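Deliverable D5.2: sample structural annotation.
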Amino acid sequence: MSLDDGAGRRNVRLLSSCFALSTTGNVVLVSVSALVGYELADDKSLATLPAALMWIGTALATVPASFLMRRVGRRFGFMTGAVIGMCGAALGALAVTLQNFEMFCFAIMVIGAYNGFNYYLRFAGAEVASEDYRSRAIALVMAGGVVAGFAGPALAKAANALFTPPAYLGPFVAIVFVAMAVGLVASFVKIPRPSAVQLRGGRPLSEITRQPVVVIAVLCSMIAYLVMILLMTVTPLAMVQGVHSFSDATFVIQWHVLGMFVPSFFSGHLIRRFGVLAVMAWGAIAIITGISIALMGVEVFHFWLSMTLLGLGWNFLFIGSTTLLTEAYTTAERAKTQALNEFIVFGGAGIGSFLSGNLHFYLGWDVLNWAALPPVVTALIAVLWLDRRRRAGYAGVNIAE
């Protein structure tokens, strides 16, 4: 199956629609989670704990989600995730109504488990494309996030105004219906399951992970998410606690999300034209530039430009890392390799989310941005090292070699 046939294009459109819906729900959640956490927590340094638990929930769900999809297929897996998301959002609405911080934390963790299923949408896109178009398929699925850049902030504001008091109840009611829509669209996805012969055998995970290409793909994916979450999670809180309004904060998050996903319309082409490692390096440089701008001031302009560049850099680094990882495993090895990647990536995101609240509360916005620099520099060095290794003709960097 490839993007050149009707079934492949149809599946990519459906997967992209699912990603657009799920990311819309995530934008709504990001817009309010730290604010709700700050309102409900007695210890205000724990304001971003719910957001951190969301990523922990995502990480914990990735392994069972991957092996469930190996057994029952992508369609049923995504539908199962949608049901989990509906339950988590409904529990979040109840927690906001009861003003219960502990219940709210658990609800966000359940929503995170729902996201653990949805992040496999990009891998599903790769599976319906030929090798030459794999990066394009991944990017096209993630391009659905552009819709979320407009719909998410608008939905957050509209839903928040619809159910008050209590504040922030509406966004969780909205996420219930968004998750329901994800399940409905996913029910039309038709991706053939691998045959028993294709799933037989495969190398041990320890052997797969000894490949430099796997190490760097996983490392860069994790750093892309860790740094993005480290800075994005606390941005609405940093702005609202300052002189800026909730509307300003949602505007900045909107542009951040657009920065994350608008490049998906051309990042796949850039990977085919210039190579995956070049695009990953550009991504790391864009993130470093965004952090530098954040350190120049705290006006809306500084937040806007730095978060937009952070989104752009995340897109190049994350899509590039995902594409790089697909070079390193066979069909039989797919479930365990993807599960390991997702667990490490979203475990790192959880750490970044938790650290963001503590660093911001105790040390401030500038220190938070300085703390984000070393991991990105590490990713850039790793990419340049692998590029040099490949140019030198070393074998063993992927399964094709």
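Annotation notes: The mean pLDDT is 86. The chain has one domain: 6-191+202-391.
The annotation will be released with the project's public dataset once the embargo ends.
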